[in-house]
Amino acid sequence: MITPWRQGDYSCFSEQVFILIIYLKYRVKLAFQFTHDETRKVYRVGIIYYQTFFIMEINIQNLVTKSFGGSGGDTFTQRGIETLAIRHGSYVDAIIIDGQQFGGNGGELSNTITFASNEYISRMEIRQGSYIDYIEITTNLGQQITGGGNGGNPVTLTGEIIALGGRSGSYIDQLEILGNFN
Questions:
Q1: Pair 160, 152: CB distance under 8 Å
Q2: How far is CA 172 from its chain centroid?
């Protein structure tokens, strides 16, 4: 669960782990500071934006990775999601995360979900066997993509899904899903 932004309170950043400076497409300078509070099981992310300091806490206590599908293909690491689409036919041929495609070029291209800053995947329905046969992805704001065939065993996940990874070859062989699940 991500807690709301708080302004001020620099005291939680007594130990700096690292600072990362990036420039967004509008050339806005942001500085990120990450620390870990083992006692409360949270990561704190401090963001300096136009000389104003904001703090966000990410609760890691309930984050779990769940895996579905087979063991073929090559690994693609879990990553947060800003845009998401799939290619699908009888199976889920590919998943496209932030413009990077994992899997094959077959099947039909779905529409693309572009996530708002307060949007996340809230529900996934998966049919899986040796491959990911079918997937339905729904966000907390109601956007949805769906595609694939009727094979495999069905699984439904609900909660706050924050990252996707897995294995792929000609199809999506496996999905690794990181989130706080209900």
A1: no
A2: 16
Among 44, 59, 74, residue at a domain's last position: 59
Q: Say whether both 116 and 55 belong to one domain.
A: no
Give me the domain span that covers residue 131. 64-181
Distance, CA of 87 to CA of 82 (rounded, Å): 17
* pLDDT tens digits, 110-134: 999 999 888 899 999 999 999 999 9
DSSP symbol at 13:
G
Q: What tokens were used for 130? A: 């040796």
Within 8 A by CB and 6+ apart from 173, the residues are: 69, 70, 71, 72, 73, 130, 131, 132, 166, 167
The structure's pTM equals: 0.70
Distances (CA, A) of 76 to 63, 66, 72, 102, 165: 19, 15, 12, 7, 6
